[in-house]
Amino acid sequence: MKTLVEEVVVEALHVGGDEAVRLYVAACAERTAPLFIGLRAGDSGRKADVDFFVESVGGLWFADRPLPDAADRVRRLEQFPELQPAEEGITGVSDTYAFFAGLVLRYALLANGSGSADHAVSCGHAALTAMGMLDQNAAGASFAADEQQLQSRSVSGTAAGLWEASVAAGRERFRAVLSRTTGGRG
Hints:
Elements: H1 7-16, H2 18-40, H3 47-60, H4 70-77, H5 93-114, H6 117-137, H7 143-154, H8 162-180
Helix pairs in contact: 1-2, 1-6, 2-3, 2-5, 2-6, 2-7, 2-8, 3-5, 4-5, 5-6, 6-7, 7-8
């Protein structure tokens, strides 16, 4: 499969080791997390899912070791409505971006638990796909280019400022998606 992740990033993930993979996926998940958390926070019956999402993304940042329950977290996440197959597909703005955030977290958890560069690349690819869609739907946006730059930064060998940059990017993305929804909800 052709990936949107830049070749230098793919190579760095394959040679960087488990900790590099875990840092990369933590940053990807952090940047997309607001798309799930913010879009699902007010939904009836989703508080436990939102809390789980927040806790899972936070746990990913301990890049020096895998989450001991990463596989269990993947199984729980796969039960979320966003990741369940639907005959009619996903059509709503909020549902689309919550799906992509869930998919990024799924691959992040898989990569965190396994140290697999291939799972990390899938994580990055999902994030870039979502940002490409957002670019197409937000005039003058450059979210995909920003995501590529932040992915490169994630494998650069220094984590200084990466969390802060990822949080800021995630907030900006959430604001852009929220502006696309009717009355703030989609």
